[in-house]
Every structure is written in C-alpha cells, then in structure tokens.
Amino acid sequence: MMWRRTAEIGVVMIISILLRASAAVAEGRRNNKGDGEDNSNNKYKNAYATMMYMGTPRDYEFYVATRVMMRSLLQHQVQADRVVIASVDVPLHWVRAMEVEDGLKVVRVENIYNPYRADNPNDRFKLTMNKLYAWNLVNYERVIMLDADNLFLQNTDELFQCGQFCAVFINPCIFHTGLFVLQPSAEIFKDMLHEVEIRRPNSDGADQGFLGSYFSNLLDMPMFHPPPNGTKLQGQYRLPLGYQMDASYYYLKLRWNVPCGPNSVITFPGAVWMKPWYWWSWPVLPLGFSWHEQRRNSLGYGAEMPMVILEVILYLGIIALTRLARPNFSKLCYRRFDKSVTMYHAGLKFLAMASIIAAYIVPFSLIPYTIHPMVGWSLYLLGSLSLCSIAINAFLLPTLAVLAPCIGIFGVLLVMACPWYKDGIVRALSVFAYAFCASPLLWVSFTRVLATLQVSLEREAFLPSRLNESPSPPGFNKLY
C-alpha cells in the first residue's frame, strides 16, 4: 500500500510539472510572436512603445536609457500603456526589472533580419527593423514609437489623436524616426515585412531609410493640430517640430525657442558617444545634466554606486601607499646601471611620461559610463590625482607640474558649466580663450617635468652610493 501511494503521488507531480511546462512553452510562443494579443494587460487603448535588442557594444547603456525614458513618462502622468518591444535575447533579469520595477509591458519578439546590413555595417543599427513590430501591436488604437534618446518635458498624449502615420521633419526633407505616431495594422505589418524581404529602396540601411521610403509622400501632408474635441484624425500628418526638438538647436542659443508646436520632447541624434546618459556629456553638452536629473528623480543610481565606492577606496589607498613608500619607489627608479646609460636614461624618461599620460587615461575608462556627471567627473579627478601620485613619488617629480593637466581640466569644466552665458557662441569663445591661456602653462609644466627628470638622472650618475651602493669602509678616504 505504501509503495502504491508513493507511485500515485509521483504520477500527480509528473503531470503537474508537464502542465506547467506546456503553459510556459505556450507563453513563450505567444511572446515570441510579438502580436500583442494579450488584452488582459492592456490598461489603456493607446501606448508609448520603444524597442530593445542585443548585440551592440552599448547594450547596457541603452537599457538604462530605456528605463529612464519610460519612467519619466509617469512623472508627466501619461494616460497610456508603456510597452517595450524586446528581442528574445534580451536578458531575463532585465525583462523582470522592467516589468516589476518599472511597470512596463514587455513584448518578446524574434529579430527581423536586416538585408541592408551591407549598406550600414554599424552594429548600432543592425536590428533597428524590429521597430516595425510597432505596427503589430494591434490591440492599441494608436502607438507613439520612441527611441531611447528622448527627453520628455511635458505630457504629449494629444499625439494619440493623430492619424495612421505622423512624424517630425527635423531635416527639411527627411522625417525623423526617433518619435512617430502610428495606427497598428496587421496588414501593414505583413506588407512591411514583404518590402524588407524584397529590399525596398533604403537610403541608410536602417529603419530611418526604410520608413522614409515607405511613407515617401509624408512631406506633402498637412500639419497636425490636435482637435479640441479629442477625436482621432485619419490619414497622414506632419508633426510640429516642437514634438521632436533636436538638441543641437539648444546649443546655439542655450535656450529653447521653437515656435512650431509645444516644446515637448528633446531628441539627441548624432554621435553615440555624446548621448546624454554618458557622464562626460555634461558640461560638454549642457543638456546632459537635464537627462541625469530625470534619471535621479526616477531610476536612481543604485546599480553604479557600489562600483563608485570601490574606486574611491582604491584611489585613496593608492595615494596613501605611494606616499608611505616614496623612498623605496625612488630607489627602484634611480639606481646605478652601468650598461648603456643613454638607453637607460631615455627609457626612464619615457616610463615617467607614459605613467603621467596613463594617469589621465586609465580613470576615464574605469568609471561607470551612466553615472551622474558630478560623480563621474569627481571620480575622474580623484583617480587622476591618485595615479599621478605614483609618478610623483616614484620619480621625485614636482607635484604642481604633474598635476597641471588635472587643474586645467577642472578649470575648463568650470568654464563650460558657467550658467551665465548669453548664448552658445559666447560659451564656445570662452572655452577657446581658456584653452589658449592655459596651453603655455601646460607647456611650462611639461618642460619642468623633463628638467627635473634630467637633474635626478645626473644626480644618480654622480652619487650612486646614495641610492644603490653601500657606504665606503672606514678609513678608505685616508689611504688615498
């Protein structure tokens, strides 16, 4: 009887496991289709959507940017679902964080093959055709499709009143796909996949060129103005520039003055290394601080702070150890070397200069890329100071001369961050003037470091016993 009861329990457990596995498989298949057919999770009839895929050198940075943008929408009290179209290779812990912590709806999809890769080999754009899945979110009446580099200044829910396709012309002749409004349609989605497969003309090998070709008549469409009664329009419309303001417009006047539509959304096209989430983007580009303030008020910096604390401890430890070990460091560098003295001196000079240069390069690459600029620059200056202390104490170099670049960097940051410039031209001229005045001081510091090295090497040549040889026996000088 005992064995029979055990067998029954085992059969029940196996059946339960099989049922759970089949349910998980069905859920995975449903997610992989990317068809958005799960109505139970739809709180609103419209959605803000963005996409996420893997395989670029900066996957984590765009993951952080996506979360910050989607969280910022809550601060503006948008009345729409927030959807992330994520490829199946996006890590599951990222998906869970977006669903549980951010309240996003994540739709898992298979990557759409991009046949235009040869025209644009940049890995950043290799899977941007996944943006077409926005047309397959058929349970929504309207979808605002977004890139991760958007900064919202106010609520833009009135865009859901636009027609079947609406976009902004940042370029006078080419609309921008960083933000556009669409009406989902399974038929259009299938037609787009067919057009991709037969290689419809594409000017840039990415989604921008494909959609520009697919909606080639948008330039001739009327301008969108939201109806006061809240009804949804039909057809295609051009969106006012205020819904997608290029950040470069700001840098000329250092203020927003876009008369065409509400100044609602900022976009950051251009070089990926100057996206606003990188800590070095501010104060080089003033709007970087605005993005980080949005992150500070939404997502926070809990993921990066442990690394920051470890680096601070490391740098402070280096400063203390190099100061305490100064005599031993100098003995390692300045010691008698009889063979090829010229090569030895040249190599020592090269080593000293290389260590100073490395002190200003290495800390830059160790700082978490998406940390707040104030923390990032402070950590960079501390790291440069600590690594410079190695060269200062090892080669007995003048402290002020070695730290001159560090002082210069701090000065140029103050010049760029000054908030009282009349416009961007005055700001640029001030930076150039500072660089012009500081360059002679940097040259003087460089020559002083070389002169100090030469003096130390000559002293080593004439007084080797001071650093490497044992003292002469007593009475030795009396005999000679």
UniProtKB/TrEMBL annotation:
The keyword Manganese applies. SUPFAM superfamilies: Nucleotide-diphospho-sugar transferases (SSF53448). Keywords: Glycosyltransferase, Manganese, Membrane, Signal, Transferase, Transmembrane, Transmembrane helix. Residues 1-28 form the signal peptide. InterPro entries: Alpha_mannosyltransferase, GNT1/Glycosyltrans_8, Nucleotide-diphossugar_trans. It comes from the Eukaryota. The chain crosses the membrane at residues 305-325, 346-371, 428-451. One of its GO terms (molecular function) is glycosyltransferase activity. The keyword Membrane applies. Belongs to the MNN1/MNT family. This is Glucuronosyltransferase PGSIP8. It comes from Chenopodium quinoa (Quinoa). The lineage of its organism: Eukaryota, Viridiplantae, Streptophyta, Embryophyta, Tracheophyta. The gene is LOC110732784.
